[in-house]
Design goal:
392 residues, alpha+beta, 2 domains, two-stranded antiparallel sheet, elongated
């Protein structure tokens, strides 16, 4: 069992799964036998086994169960409502048909359980459809993995004891280890605060997303199918507020007060171990915004003082020699790269993504200067909507 443990937890986390139904085995040999017979060596890329070493229990993922809807991506979705439906949204997952026997755990059947991942998690923030034609730099700011924090308890709000812990990374000294829990029923809260950017790349504030879920395994009646019932109790969203504040939580008064305690614990965990953005993305934003600001400032100058005016009538190589910053390179390439000499088809199509790198390669300068210019290409690539345009 130990051979898969580390890999499986990592995959559960990377896929954003917040719960995975499993069979539990008190007899570790029975668990190994069931794993080998069910999955074999050809399917080890799926998360299938996790070991509770303290209790000598082996958990094996229930075959054919792979519902990506029960993942942290729910933070970005709205609950589906049937017409006329009121109250919480429920998801029912069949774990076993009544006519299929449970695997054996020595002299008795294996038991059904659910593995949960708590602590710092991530979800993928997607662009909305109306933003699909924006530039690459904007997409990079608003789309991608974002932090969230998950807290799990018993149904009565009492804390769950983790069966395993594993490293949560060294990105911040305040970040703890992730925890794996096993339970047949319980409650969960997943909190996320995400930096929101204006169209010009400035920061508008942090938006809040909160997911409250309750789950229960229903398998006591052998005449019926085994089911996992997941109730989406609440999906909250709060628009960004100015400043760096991590939004507080205001839940409906109709909810059980225990939900407020669990949600607040998730928010405190987020503040302690997560961030609305990351250092790499912020450095990228500062770079892009700084270059765009310089470009716009140059465009506002009198005509005869603009950089674009200075390089328009120059030979393309002379123009490249004047480039000191990425925004200047973008101006030169926009003016001089549309030439047949840089195109693979002799000029029928002068595609920037092809012509710009070729222009640099043909430039009569040192290898170090070519490397410097190539390093400026990314700015143009991510700010020019015509970078890959081939014509109508």
């Amino acid at each position: 069992m130990e051979r898969q443990m580390g890999k499986d937890i990592k995959l559960m986390d990377e896929l954003g799964l917040f719960m995975v139904p499993v069979y539990g085995f008190n007899d570790r040999d029975a668990a190994d036998t069931y794993f080998d017979n069910t999955y074999g060596g050809a399917n080890l890329y799926n998360p299938q086994t996790v070991a509770d070493l303290d209790r000598a229990i082996g958990y094996v993922m229930i075959p054919s169960w792979w519902d990506m809807s029960l993942s942290t991506s729910l933070l970005t979705e709205r609950p589906y409502r049937h017409r006329g439906q009121t109250g919480p949204d429920q998801k029912w997952e069949k774990l076993r048909s009544a006519d299929t026997p449970r695997p054996r755990d020595g002299a008795r059947p294996a038991f059904t359980n659910v593995l949960l991942v708590g602590g710092r998690r991530q979800y993928f923030r997607h662009l909305s459809r109306d933003r699909m034609h924006n530039t690459g730099w904007w997409k990079r700011l608003v789309e991608g993995p974002r932090d969230c924090f998950a807290v799990w308890t018993h149904r009565d709000g009492q804390r769950l004891e983790p069966i395993r812990r594993f490293d949560n990374g060294e990105e911040s000294p305040n970040r703890k280890t992730k925890s794996i829990y096993a339970a047949r029923s319980g409650r969960g809260a997943i909190y996320a605060a995400t930096t929101v950017y204006a169209k010009d790349g400035s920061i508008e504030g942090n938006e809040m997303r909160l997911l409250l879920v309750e789950f229960q395994v229903l398998d006591r009646d052998d005449r019926k199918d085994d089911q996992l019932r997941v109730t989406i109790v609440s999906q909250s969203y709060q628009l960004a507020q100015p400043g760096s504040h991590i939004p507080e939580i205001e839940l409906s008064r109709d909810l059980d007060p225990l939900w407020t305690e669990i949600a607040d614990a998730a928010r405190r965990g987020f503040i302690r171990e997560c961030a609305p953005s990351n250092h790499e993305l912020e450095e990228y934003r500062v770079f892009i915004v700084g270059q765009l600001t310089r470009l716009k400032a140059d465009e506002k100058l009198p005509y005869d003082r603009k950089f674009s005016t200075r390089i328009r009538d120059l030979n393309w190589e002379d123009a490249l020699r004047l480039v000191k910053e990425p925004w200047q390179f973008a101006v030169v390439a926009g003016e001089h790269a549309h030439q047949g000499r840089f195109s693979s088809d002799g000029g029928m199509y002068t595609i920037l993504s092809e012509c710009v790198p070729e222009m640099i390669q043909q430039h009569g300068c040192s290898p170090e200067r070519k490397d410097e210019l190539m390093g400026m290409v990314s700015f143009m690539q991510e700010t020019n909507t015509m970078w890959n345009y081939r014509g109508d």
